[in-house]
């Protein structure tokens, strides 16, 4: 049997395209060929189960080997195999029409997956690295003859009699000069670990040395010896393919370590398993994430039938869950998935919605099951929940039941609970309930204490996303306003009808303002004299809530960069009812007045951590003189 012919693609430009435009992703040739071998193996197993193949299955391991001297890589399986006719059908007739149009459309393509996936060119990815490819195969069908197919990268092929004695297929790649990097054990091992680590059929790649027990020494100690054994690179039944009922916590933790050997143990996990309206399995882990966005190395891995595709899952997983770790496997997502496919496919959109719902349900379940444990984990999971509520309306609706607010006393409240807690005391004269918050509890301690004296509660909002979450709360919570605790003096944070009156006359207030403006001598600070509690500080320095918030958001991004470039402006509130101000007015010496005003102002800056350098040195020196 011998036959020569031309591959039916109607153009000689296909191979240059494969070689040139897929070059940046050339390692996927091994994924494609091993996946094909696994598919052929699973099909023969299926036929045996259905009684349509009665022969012995025998060893069904897929083997990958290389020969550095001969410059070959070989992938062999004991799957279905092919007849000469099937080779013509599946190998020679590339499944697309209008090749000229194809060449024109994809001559500038950058995405290898887009080309391979769209036109079924998986096998032909071999020509990215090989000058010649040879197939030696024997079909499982009774009476079939072995067949050999060879092609040198042109559109010419040759089919002849093969010499294979057992069922299956062996593909040999004669590696080209530009791709000899693949004739390396560790390079190939790395690619197999990346793409084939969880394939459902054993994949052998050479051998490895293991230590096994070999009896006992005279003193009773175990003897060990080294043995060579097959290097099976994959786990054929990873936990996401199993029922959650058959798994223990240690199984999930062990798998997490397998995925992320250097990672800290996760907080908890979600086992995904759905077969309608799409197929999806997987395990998502909640890692410990503190107050910095670790858009990290440990990404969610996307699989299709246990073949690794990518860890760029932005269109499949909601953006707010990109901080999660783990795996997602869906046969509804093709192996050669392109970015444009992910963005357009309806199944992908359904998967996205399903994952959002599952995460919300899991968080709600954890909260209801053991609120105390949930509160202990809040510092780690709060970032996920807040980000989700900001970015996904459906998640926000569910999140109202398990999102927590924490105050400076370490107490936790759901959103409805907190509203109820502060409504009576923290509602202003305009019927707005005001939530006070601190971003740095230590730095803002003086302001927190002033608020606490008025029985006001203060929340802790110190995560990088809280500036956006505050905006979200104000939009969603009716008649609710949030103010940073140092945005103004406590008396003015929540304006009441019965606020303190300024005991100074208009002339006295004017004089005090002039003294402080002279002492401060800086246009960045605007001075105002107000009637406050005598127990409050004589001088308080604050930044307007709106301006401070815009600057915080500018640091986080979000289209507020204009505010970030504006100079800082502060309000200086002079407490007209404080004894220090009375002393200031009774001081007749102008220099002494300025000195006292400057001291009170610097004290206010010091309480905010805003007094530094020469100003701090001068304050200390002045303080010694005043003692």
From TrEMBL:
In terms of InterPro entries, this protein maps to: HATPase_C_sf, HSP90_C, Hsp90_fam, Hsp90_N, Ribosomal_Su5_D2-typ_SF
For the ligand (ATP), the binding residues are 32, 36, 77, 82, 97-98, 169, 339
Q: What's in the keyword line of the UniProt record?
A: ATP-binding, Chaperone, Cytoplasm, Nucleotide-binding, Stress response
MF terms (GO), sorted A to Z? ATP binding; ATP hydrolysis activity; ATP-dependent protein folding chaperone; unfolded protein binding
Q: Can you tell me which family this protein belongs to?
A: Belongs to the heat shock protein 90 family.
PANTHER family in the cross-refs = HEAT SHOCK PROTEIN 90 FAMILY MEMBER
- The name on file for this protein is Chaperone protein HtpG
User: Which species is listed as the source?
Assistant: Aquiflexum gelatinilyticum
């Amino acid at each position: 049997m011998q036959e020569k012919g031309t591959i039916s693609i109607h153009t000689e430009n296909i191979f240059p395209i494969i070689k040139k435009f897929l070059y940046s992703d050339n390692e996927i040739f091994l994924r494609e060929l091993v996946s094909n071998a696994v598919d052929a193996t699973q099909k023969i197993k299926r036929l045996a189960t259905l009684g349509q193949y009665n022969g012995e299955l025998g060893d069904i391991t897929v083997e990958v080997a290389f020969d550095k001297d001969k410059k070959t890589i070989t992938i062999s399986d004991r799957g279905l195999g092919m007849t000469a006719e099937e080779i013509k059908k599946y190998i020679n007739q590339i499944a697309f029409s209008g090749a000229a149009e194809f060449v024109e459309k994809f001559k500038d393509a950058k995405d290898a997956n887009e080309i391979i996936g769209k036109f079924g060119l998986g096998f032909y990815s071999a020509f990215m690295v090989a000058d010649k490819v040879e197939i030696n195969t024997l079909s499982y069908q009774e009476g079939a003859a072995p067949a050999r197919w060879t092609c040198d990268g042109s559109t010419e092929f040759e089919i002849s009699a093969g010499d294979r004695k057992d069922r299956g297929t062996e593909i040999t790649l004669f590696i080209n000069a530009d791709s000899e990097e693949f004739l390396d054990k560790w390079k190939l091992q790395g690619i197999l670990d990346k793409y084939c680590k969880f394939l459902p059929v054993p994949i052998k790649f050479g051998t490895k040395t293991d230590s096994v027990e070999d009896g006992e020494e005279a003193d009773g100690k175990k003897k060990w010896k080294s043995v060579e054994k097959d290097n099976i690179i994959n786990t054929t039944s990873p936990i996401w393919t199993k029922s959650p009922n058959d798994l223990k916590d240690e199984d999930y933790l062990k798998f997490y370590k397998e995925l992320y050997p250097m990672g800290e143990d996760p907080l908890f996990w979600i086992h995904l398993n759905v077969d309608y309206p799409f197929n999806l399995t997987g395990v998502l882990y909640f890692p410990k994430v503190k107050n910095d966005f670790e858009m990290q190395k440990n990404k969610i891995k996307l699989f299709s039938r246990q073949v690794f595709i990518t860890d760029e899952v932005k269109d499949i997983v909601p953006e707010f869950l990109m901080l999660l770790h783990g795996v997602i496997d869906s046969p509804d997502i093709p192996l050669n998935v392109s970015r444009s496919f992910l963005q357009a496919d309806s199944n992908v959109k359904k998967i996205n919605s399903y994952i959002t719902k599952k995460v919300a349900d899991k968080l709600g379940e954890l909260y209801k099951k053991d609120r105390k444990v949930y509160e202990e984990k809040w510092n780690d999971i709060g970032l996920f929940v807040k980000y989700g509520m900001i970015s996904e309306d459906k998640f926000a609706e569910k999140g109202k039941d398990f999102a927590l607010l924490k105050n400076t006393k370490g107490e936790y409240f759901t959103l409805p609970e907190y509203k109820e807690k502060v409504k009576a005391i923290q509602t202003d004269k305009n019927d707005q309930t005001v939530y006070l918050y601190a971003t740095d509890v230590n730095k803002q301690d003086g302001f927190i204490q002033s608020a606490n004296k008025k029985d006001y509660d203060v929340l802790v909002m110190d995560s990088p996303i809280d500036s956006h979450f505050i905006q979200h709360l104000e939009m969603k919570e009716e008649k609710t306003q949030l103010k940073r605790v140092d945005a103004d003096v406590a008396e003015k944070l929540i304006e009441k009808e019965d606020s303190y009156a300024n005991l100074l006359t208009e002339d006295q207030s004017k004089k005090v303002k002039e003294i402080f403006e002279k002492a401060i001598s800086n246009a960045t600070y605007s001075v105002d004299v107000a009637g406050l509690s005598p127990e409050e500080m004589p001088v308080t320095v604050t930044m307007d809530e709106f301006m401070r918030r815009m600057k915080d958001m500018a640091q986080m991004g979000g289209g507020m960069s204009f505010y970030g470039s504006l100079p800082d402006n502060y309000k200086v509130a002079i407490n007209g009812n404080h004894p220090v101000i009375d002393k200031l007015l009774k001081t007749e010496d102008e220099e002494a007045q300025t000195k006292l005003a400057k001291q009170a102002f610097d004290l206010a800056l010091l309480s905010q951590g805003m007094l530094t350098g020469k100003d701090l040195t001068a304050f200390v020196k002045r303080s010694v003189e005043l003692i």
